[in-house]
Amino acid sequence: MKYKLSLAVLALAVFAYGQDAGGDVKKTAEDTGHATKKAAKKTAHASAEAADKTADATKDAADKTADATKDAAKDTGDATKTAAKKTGHATAKAADKTADATESAAKTTGHAVKKGAKKTAHGVKKGAEKTVDAVK
């Protein structure tokens, strides 16, 4: 009987210890759950802040890119306009020079033709006079 009593006391002690261990596990699990919930809230808050900052930075970068693109397009347009003006001016100058050169060439050609015609006429007149003198 002492043996049975010892077993009963031992079983009761194990049962009592088990009940206490279960309470400790439950408390530990609750504490862990609470800590996990707190950490998750902090992580979510930090993630939301990081997302806001990223969105702001992205918007700022997009605005700066748009401004730079607009400025580049304006500068390109101005450069094209200036080049077109310069090209037009150079074309007008070239046309004036071509006209002057053509006029000069026409005058020179006309003068040479006139001289050639006079010489030809003079030669024809001399030849005719010689022919008249020979016929006489």
Descriptive key words:
136 residues; mainly alpha; 1 helix; rod-shaped
Question: How is this structure best described in words?
Answer:
The chain is rod-shaped, with a radius of gyration of 57 Å. It is an all-alpha fold and 136 residues long. Helices cover 99% and strands 0% of the residues. The longest helix has 134 residues, at 2-135. It has 1 helix and no strands.
Structural topology:
Layout: H1 2-135
Short description:
This protein is an all-alpha fold.
| Alpha-carbon distance between the two ends | 192 Å
- The dominant shape is rod-shaped
Question: Low-confidence segments, ≥5 residues, pLDDT <50?
Answer: none
- Give the mean pLDDT: 78
N-to-C order of helices and strands: H
Total beta strand runs: 0
Looking at the chains present, what oligomeric state does this protein adopt? single chain
Strand content bin: under 5%
Question: Structural class, from helix and strand content?
Answer: mainly alpha
Helix content: over 70%
> Rounded to an integer, what's the Rg over CA atoms?
57 Å
Describe the biggest sheet? none
Question: How many separate helices?
Answer: 1
